[in-house]
Specification:
The complex is a heterodimer of chains A (about 110) and B (about 110). By secondary structure, chain A is an all-beta fold. Helices cover about 0% and strands about 50% of the residues of chain A. Chain A has no helices and 11 strands. In chain A, the strands form 2 sheets. In chain A, strands 2, 4, 5, 6, 9, 10 and 11 form a 7-stranded mixed β-sheet that branches. Chain A has a 4-stranded antiparallel β-sheet with strand order 1-3-8-7, with no helix packed on it. In chain A, strand 9 and strand 10 (about 105) form a beta hairpin. The mean pLDDT of chain A is about 95. With about 110 residues, chain B is an all-beta fold. In chain B, strands 2, 5, 6, 10, 11 and 12 form a 6-stranded mixed β-sheet that branches. In chain B, about 35% of the residues are buried. Classes of the chains: A mainly beta (about 110), B mainly beta (about 110). The interface of A and B includes residues 45, 50, 102, 105 and 106 of A.
């Protein structure tokens, strides 16, 4: 596709359930970012990949959050034992190189009940 | 550390009127500056960016922004808004390009 694709668009999880969110970046884009956007807030940085290397994971809120990009393309954000405070929109973005424009996906809206 | 402040959480404006959305940032080093627009249930779309050079930056949809280093500001302006400009607007800064720091956003509502 032409843009960043995220799936699923919507996810409802019971508290304690594990979830996996997928991001397909634009083909050839080296950099990949994950952000968390709570209702009425701006996006908060979670983690950054350059190809398959996770160079910055300082924004991951707890050890329940894990991200990977094993082949330097598709990325998965996994949240274990989901809690209500994890409810948010999770945005993925990719860019061709560092410092270039980041293109965002439509996000995955996670609701933990 | 870097931070972004968008003081106006909601801005109502009549159609065809001008608008300014304010953004101030805090950083001890040089930064790159961005404005993104977010339509309902959509991701973020880049409006414009300042990396270096001219401090007046023109973007898509008739928006422009001016980088003011002394005031650490990057306000977004449009001389005449349309109904279709109703959306959320986010200012962001980046030092390395590895991490973007976003403001809390301004919800622009254009009134017919």
């Amino acid at each position: 596709g032409a843009g960043v694709s995220q799936s699923p668009r919507y996810k409802v999880a019971k508290r304690g359930q594990d979830v996996a969110l997928r991001c397909d970046p634009i083909s050839g884009h080296v950099s990949l970012f994950w952000y968390q956007q709570a209702l009425g807030q701006g996006p908060e940085f979670l983690t950054y990949f350059q190809n398959e290397a996770q160079l910055d994971k300082s924004g991951l809120p707890s050890d329940r959050f894990f991200a990977e990009r094993p082949e330097g393309s598709v990325s998965t954000l996994k949240i274990q034992r989901t809690q209500q405070e994890d409810s948010a929109v999770y945005l993925c973005a990719s860019s061709l190189i560092r410092d270039s424009e980041a293109f965002f996906g439509q996000g995955t809206r996670l609701t933990v009940v | 550390a870097q931070s972004v402040t968008q003081l106006d959480s909601q801005v109502p404006v009549f159609e065809e009127a001008p608008v300014e959305l304010r953004c101030n940032y805090s950083s001890s080093v040089s930064v790159y500056l961005f404005w993104y627009v977010q339509y309902p249930n959509q991701g973020l779309q880049l409006l414009l960016k300042y990396l270096s050079g001219s401090t007046l930056v023109k973007g898509i949809n008739g928006f422009e922004a001016e980088f003011n280093k002394s005031q650490t500001s990057f306000h977004l302006r449009k001389p005449s808004v349309h109904i279709s400009d109703t959306a959320g607007y986010f200012c962001a800064v980046s030092v390395t390009g590895n991490q973007f720091y976003f403001g809390t956003g301004t919800s622009l509502t254009v009134i017919p």
